[in-house]
Amino acid sequence: MMVYLLKFSTVLLILIIFYKIFLEHEKTFKFNRFFLLTSLLFSVISPFFVIYVSPEWLDIPTQQTQNIVTQSEFIGSPINIKYVEQPSLNYYNILLTIYWTVFILLAFRFVWNLKNLIAKCNKYGQVINNKFHIVLDENKILPHSFFNYLFFNREDFENGKIDATIIRHEQRHAEAYHSIDIILMELTLLFFWFNPILYWYKKTMLLNHEFYADLQNDNKNLKYYQRLILSQVFPKKANYLASGFNYSFIKKRMKMLQKSHNGPYLRVKQSLIIPLLLIISLVVSKKMISQNNSTTNHTVVFINGNNSTSNTTFSHLNHDNKTMNSDEIGKIIKSEGITSFDKIGIVNNGKKYEGSAVTEFKYLEDKSELFMRGLSNASALIIIQTEKSASGKKVREVKIDESNDDAKASAKVVYNDSESMLPPPPPPVQRINSNGSNKYDNVPGPPPPPVAPNAPMPPAPPVPPAPPTPPAPPVPPSPNIEEAELVMKAEQVRMEAEQARALEQQLAMKAEMEKLIEQQVEMKAEQEKMVEQQLAMKAEMEKMVEQNVIMEKEKAKMKEEKAKEEKEKLKEKQKKEKNQ
Predict the structure, then answer these.
(1) CA angle 459, 462, 463 (to 5 degrees)
(2) Which residues contact 79 (CB under 8 A, 6 or more apart)?
(3) In what order do the strands lie in the sheet with 306-307?
(4) pLDDT greater at residue 555 or residue 228
(5) How sure is the predictor about 461, in pLDDT bands with cuts at 50, 70 and 90?
(6) Closest by Cα among 397, 406, 394, 402 to 336
């Protein structure tokens, strides 16, 4: 989950930065809206992308740190396992509780606001104007819209105090269905409420909505529209699910209104989007080995802990020493068994190894073994060690699917390095019946010799006492069972180590959340400061408007006085003409 959140946040951050640098200042508002919605969807689904590549593209982790335990090394040896003490507090459960608590609160707020909007429509009635439904609220509210419903204060609307420009602004929000974007954004925030990048994305999206709604007054009555924007500034919005005329970003909106055309190289900037998405997909997607590539072997080869599948070939004495790949040698091992290992020749990167000189040769088909090694797409694994072991032991092992009728049974042999051949197999175990006797005791013997007629019967020989039956030797424990127990204990240790790492990650997450809370507090303080600045700007603008009005009045007064003087001059001139 942490990997997904990291990929999601990184992709969304990259796309927003790209938008801020190249697209936000352009007047292509519909294209910008499409890009923002696509960015959100792409950020959510891109971590699930899977790309199939050839094995040469993947750097499969080495297994050099894996300790191979042979039969002679662990039988009778004590096993020391260090248990990690569990912490008294489970921070994972605490964080999970916090997450679901905030999720429920936000979901309740979302449903509550949606219910309030629907209730307003039913309570105050509707006035249908073309395709829009005008809802007149008795309360003092700001103009806003939700889908094709426009909300205004009844008194202001009936008295004509709401400017036609504001009504047209809300109609443009409704025509573009901006409410769909807002609802989609709020649903995303329900699940990722802790991600600050999404709040930045939300502000960016709402600003683009306002740019689009302001487009109707682009370079038309600009000063009047700017005063109208300032007159509608309030510190509180009517409903966060609605699109309102009073949304802030005053400075950016006024700059966009003054802009008359797009910047240069617009098409070049837009053409960079597809390469950017392709590069992000390649980086964040999951890489898997392609099963349809004819050059890919299904049998993976590890030599001295390194993946050497693509640069290793094999040969076999019983098969004319012809060059084979790992799949072909795997079929021979399955058919001929463990005794064929020492007849195998191995060539890796031009260096040849004889099978008899290899200290460890294992062929594994067990699905659990392949999964634990991260090779779930492979059908088999060949492990080869060419370096001498410290204990001087050689290991030969075949572990395959027992349901395969064409394969030999699984087996494992450990013998001394000084031995040139594999040791002979152990003698067959004598089967004992349930009554303690050998299963061959009841087989009939040869018939007795014939007895002459009327011959006296010889006395029966004394019956010797039956010797005591020796107790059956204890059956030694199966090495496979002990191996399984050791693997289980090692797996338990690994799981406890993973729990410790998860605990560290949880502590780091807690610190990050505290840091995010501090950032949110700082952002809130900055927002309050911005509101104060906006109010101050509004007061200054009103003062400037008043000064302009006073100046206009003075100019009008001066014109009147000038007109009076001209009239008086004209009257005097007329009098003079009459007197003459």
Answers:
(1) 130
(2) 486, 489
(3) 306-307, 299-303, 380-385, 360-364, 393-399, 411-416
(4) 555
(5) low
(6) 406
Distance CA 248, CA 233 (A): 7
SS3 track for 398-457: EECCCCCCCCCCCEEEEEECCCCCCCCCCCCCCCECCCCCECCCCCCCCCCCCCCCCCCC
Spatial neighbors of 32 by CB under 8 A, at least 6 apart, are: 19, 23, 24, 26, 208, 211
Q: Which of 89 and 393 is assigned the larger pLDDT?
A: 393
Which residues are 315's β-sheet partners? 345
- Work out the pLDDT band at 390, boundaries 50, 70, 90: low
Phi-psi region of 160 (alpha: psi -120 to 50; beta: other; left: phi over 0): left
Reference 118, options 209, 179, 202; nearest CA is: 179
Q: CA-to-CA distance for 10 and 28, rounded, in angstroms? A: 25
CA distances from 554 to 223, 242, 293 (A): 21, 44, 87
Neighbours of 125 (CB within 10 A): 12
pLDDT digits (tens, 9 = 90+) for 185-194: 999 999 999 9
Indicate if the alpha-carbon torsion angle 42, 43, 48, 54 is positive or negative.
positive
Return the C-alpha torsion angle 136, 140, 144, 149, nearest 10: -20
Calculate helix-pair angle for 2-22, 196-214, nearest 10 degrees: 30
Structure tokens at 424: 């002979």
* Strand-pair category, 312-316 with 344-348: antiparallel
The backbone torsions φ and ψ at residue 155, rounded to the nearest 5 degrees and listed phi first, read -65, -45
Residue 359: strand, helix, or coil: coil
Rg (CA), the chain: 44
Tokens 């790492």 correspond to: 501
Sheet bearing 312-316, strands edge to edge: 312-316, 344-348, 351-354
Name residue 307's beta-bridge partners.
302
pTM over 0.70: no
Structure tokens at 504: 């560290």
Q: What is the pairing mode between strands 360-364 and 380-385?
A: antiparallel
Residue-wise pLDDT for 392-403, tens only, equals: 778 888 887 655
> Read out DSSP for 472-526?
PPPPPPPHHHHHHHHHHHHHHHHHHHHHHHHHHHHHHHHHHHHHHHHHHHHHHHH
Asked if residue 218 lies in contact with residue 262, where contact means CB atoms within 8 angstroms, the answer is no
Single-letter code of the amino acid located at 167 = I
Report the C-alpha gap between 49 and 61 in whole angstroms: 22
SS3 state at 310: coil
